[in-house]
Amino acid sequence: MMIDPDDLAAVMEKDPAVVDEDDAIRYHAGFHAVCLYREAHQLWEAGEFDKARELNFRSINLTGCDIHPAAKIGKRFFVDHAIGVVIGETAEIGDNVSLYQGVTLGGVSFNKGKRHPTVGNHVVIGCNASVLGNITIGNNVRIGAGSVVLSDVPDDCTVVGVPGRIVKRAGIRTNESDLMHNDLPDPEEDQIRSMAKEIEELKAQVKALTAALEKKRFAPSRLSSRTARSGASSCPRPAPAPRRSRL
Description:
Layout: H1 5-14, H2 21-27, H3 29-45, H4 49-63, E1 66-67, E2 72-73, E3 78-79, E4 86-87, E5 92-93, E6 98-99, E7 104-106, E8 118-119, E9 124-125, E10 130-132, E11 136-137, E12 142-143, E13 148-149, E14 157-160, E15 165-169, H5 187-218, H6 222-230
């Protein structure tokens, strides 16, 4: 198995469950998948396509991770848990990229040309996320778990949801917080909380208006008070009886 020191260093840095380098080399499935990919990729580049595919097949059965030998992947590549990770033939991945279990970098076309994503440097893609098609994911991007990304993402962004939406721009440096892919904004939750707050405010207003109307309903009016003070004097006087004339 071909061991790249940079890939090993990434495992030691990003996976706290690893005891030591010997533990990573012997038992880390994600590291095994990356090492076998490196070897298969060299064979592919040398034109040994059948041998490359055979090694890729062995890697799938051993680790549960399918990285096509033709894919182009940069330094310090980290795959956590390996299971279910799929990287297509024309995918391109930059340096210091972290993928978690179940991630798919897939195609949406039957064309033989470029049909898989291009991923920049310092990118974190959370578990079970799918990045599909010939799209570009910029540098310093975080993609939340379970997201489905179907369009380009600029540098320094956070993407969540189905389909993926940019919920934060600028200021994200995933190389400083690679394991914080769970600490992402939730726009639906924020909207629900905002609506709940607005509903409570409206309920308070309705309650205050209802109390004011009830108070006004049972309070004596000015006209009633004036009539009570004036008593009978306020009643209209009867008209005088007509006088009888003397004959």
